[in-house]
Amino acid sequence: MAKKQKIAVVFNEASAEFYIKPEVTEKKDFNFIPFFEVDDLNPIEEYELLAKRLSKAGYDAYTLNIRDDITLLIKDAKKNKPDCIFNFIELYKENARLEMNAVGVIDLLRIPYTGASPLTLANCQNKVLAKRILKVEGIRTSKFIIIKEAANKYVHHLKFPVIVKPAYEDASVGIDNDSVVHNEKDLKRRIEYILFDFNQPALAEEFIEGRELNVAVMGDKEPVALPISEIDFSQMPAHLHNIVSYQAKWDPNHEAYHKTIPICPALLPKDIERAAKSIALKAFNIMGCRDYARIDIRLSNDNQLYVLEVNPNPDLTEGAGFLRSTEAAGYSYVQTLEKIINYAILRGS
Prior knowledge:
Shape: globular
Radius of gyration: 20 Å
Structural class: alpha+beta
CATH architecture of the largest domain: 2-Layer Sandwich
Largest sheet: 6 strands, antiparallel
Helix content: 25-40%
CATH topology of the largest domain: D-amino Acid Aminotransferase, Chain A, domain 1
Number of helices: 11
């Protein structure tokens, strides 16, 4: 009988006590009609469930929370000798820019692991660098400026509305309804909010009105673009901008969470669909992605495609954006996880 492949599901949740649930939970009284049911699972429980699903599929899977201590990963690798690490480390010491360093340790351990390399993680997380790389390669992105320090006035040639983001965050951190500004006063206020509250440069770019497309790409040597998912903004109330803010992604008690409704596969003209998939594949390869990634694209009102971001290692929570596309492509949740593991193992350490 063949030996089961040992899979370490590795993540970093330093404050596990944060997720302890109160004994009595009051039912939330929304002042709007919620579209989604609120999921009670916290991130740690999601990783444990993923490992259980892999175990039922025939793997020897276990979870490892490194809790901001990289030595736990090193000790576990020596003790358990996993055949593959399913990497879910997204930040280290509460610093998203250290994600690449933690993954670099896995590289040094010479253990096959899923997803992007340290270099790809670094390049994609640096939004300014990513935009410059894509632009040089002929991929359209919105016009932008980068502001590194506060000033009395910010000189630019951008057309309003403008959206302002932290330059080095991911998962929509620092993006909320006030990120979209329509005049110089609000632009200055938002830039300085990013500079002082996030302690990093601010990226200000022209806001592209239109449809938001998520193009999932899966594979290593021969990646393929999967059915496109669209974020439907048609139910968004007038007081909220048509953006996928942090609240829209992660806060089930916020109205934006329930008004950004995914449609997969997206209903698109065939020529637009082909062009979006082609651009996504090109961006995936240019940025050095592997195994799985999500490329966020805006389809402007005049049918131009703009790459917003390249997201390596996107969320693999069941029902999340990437998984919607794999399901539309005919893969079950476990089949998707297995394909990602197989890419990593075939690639080797």
